[in-house]
Amino acid sequence: MTIKLIAIGKTDHKQLESLIAEYIKRLGFYVKFDFEIIPDIKNAKNLSEAQQKDKEGKLILNKITTSDVVILLDENGKQYDSVGFSELLQKHMNSGIKQLIFVIGGPYGFSQEVYHRANGKLSLSKMTFSHQMIRLFFIEQLYRGFTILRNEPYHHR
Prior knowledge:
Blueprint: E1 2-8, H1 14-27, E2 32-38, H2 49-61, E3 69-78, H3 82-94, E4 99-104, H4 112-117, E5 120-122, H5 131-149
Parallel strand pairs: 1-2, 1-4, 3-4, 3-5
């Protein structure tokens, strides 16, 4: 199985990029992982919130096939502790799917079309984080989930 993270907009903090790269490297020991960044919408300031979500939604949906399982990182999604998240990963790996895609939307969230296509929603916290920080937090939790599944000492139970 491949796990893919799709995010809108580039990260402009070198320190975050470095940490994200470190956890992506670590993930390579456990799973095939792809991180795809969709460039920010041009002239977004001239678009309404709905127009921006619609344009971003079309770009997101172009990256997804019908056989992919898609989980949106959304403030209204289900919350897990790290062990519960690792169990969710194991469940998807056991199901035989080819690709599990997690998506971080733009500043206004997702279009209705993206919500309709999604197979689920995941919230990392009730708190709000920047779209750049959430990338690092999610990838670290993904790594942590695999170390839990392998009973490795990274996660102290």
